[in-house]
């Protein structure tokens, strides 16, 4: 590879990292500039209205259908943190998710390893799909000794390579202050949230060199992370389809899948729902961005509020049904 080609790829990658970083505050020295920003936001909200504002419409569309909940973890159920090992879910959010899972089939699909997500969430009775859906486990049952049922691991042949590359990456990035490498079983995550922007190019170069030595891996990126994954056609969208099929409801017209996520990798799931013409995505974002999601929420606190309202709606629906039964009797 020519030096100029390599430099061009690094520059392109750094630009991508910059684009996915929190939007810098822009000057608002003129009323025209502020008006333009307001117009942009209004146009975006018109395309992706708040799921809270549109809650009644969403529930109207869900009438007579079985809602299936798919949830991302980081940035959706928990806040994004400087230390990725401390992205804890709050007790209040955990309780809400527990209630959601009581009334609706529920799955958490995350880029983290399944074991890590389970250790954070600490809930049984739901599906966990870690490593962007490459490690899917069925609902745990506290009444059984075997609490984890491995349902699907499409990249199991890659495990030895992933174990090897994590050590290579740690060695290559240890000289870059703030960079950390997270082993997520079927994928590797390089965090650069605490890396000064002046060090992004050096970090991207080290990751590129690793990819040259391991061509069976591919590079993806999300919020302040670079990820190395097996080069297989599998993502969160594929995981969503697998779970619908495994539940035996993929072809049902009476099912309404709802996926809530905040990152670029969640777009694969949003896109699948759009293509199926079934269900919808809710993007969690305070900034304007292209998305396949139908609705939006700003942060995990709004996700919590949406889930609380969903549970309340379901309880009211069941209460009405019970009242009808009593009247018939």
TrEMBL record:
Pathway: Glycan biosynthesis; trehalose biosynthesis
Domain of life: Eukaryota
GO molecular function, one term: trehalose-phosphatase activity
EC number: 3.1.3.12
InterPro entries: HAD-SF_hydro_IIB (IPR006379), OTSB-like (IPR044651), Trehalose_PPase (IPR003337)
Cofactor dependence: a divalent metal cation
GO terms of biological process kind: trehalose biosynthetic process
TM spans (from-to): none
Sequence segments annotated as region (Disordered): 21-41
Function: Removes the phosphate from trehalose 6-phosphate to produce free trehalose. Trehalose accumulation in plant may improve abiotic stress tolerance.
NCBIfam families in the record: HAD-SF-IIB, T6PP
Protein name listed in UniProt: Trehalose 6-phosphate phosphatase
